[in-house]
Request: fold
Amino acid sequence: MRALIIRNVVAGVVAGAAVAGLLGAGLVAKAAPVEVKTVPFEVQGQLPIYPKALYKYGATSVAVRKLEARLIQLKLLDKRYLDNEYGTMTRGAVKKFQQNKGIPPLGYVDQNTWDKLVAATKEPTQKELYPPVPVVDGRKLDARCATGVALCIDKTTRKLRYVVDGVVKMQFDVRFGAVKTATREGGFTVGWKSRNHVSKLYDSPMPYAMFFSGGQAVHYSSDFAARGYNGASHGCVNVRDLAKIKALFDLVHVGDKVIVYRS
Reply:
């Protein structure tokens, strides 16, 4: 066994030497050179220096709100994202502005970007920064419904309002879940839509469903249409006007706000 191992080692050494000889004689093709990737900046003994960020992803402040208001003036950002938070949409809008101005699209605001943005816009007014909250039937809607597109759902008045930039476009009677299956309150977004949905849990139809929190959705309810407020949902927001919710379903997009609150 030992002699066999020695023979194998010797054979390997001889084979290696033979290959080396062939390479030297140019009889065996050399391996292709390894591709070397370069970085987009030149390093000469020092790390690159980037401009200092005034506002960047993750920042939250009134100053960020003013930044967003200026981006909205330039139609680079939708009003719904006027929220004091330097998130994905704000970063994308900043990149667009930088590209338009020939600035490196870093995605954060440095002094040069800010100076050019100030020069291209006007100082935001109080109304731009804090759009007035809509008042309907003597009651103020939730402040989160004042900007962008929102399904503004008031559990006190049992009304759903489709609001666009603070203007109520449609209004619906709605009902909610019972005590043990209460409709959740808070700020949500439409996660997905299903025109002819059927509940797997309750084996009941949920047409024109717009889901916003787990299995809870805004949808048409034939039971609500027949029995009114004598019944309750399993947590969903029931609508009883079929024609109007058909129209609403086509207007609402995934990502639109859903605000469930008490006035």
About this structure: Confidence is low (pLDDT under 50) at residues 1-29, 36-43. Residues 2-25 form the longest helix (24 residues).
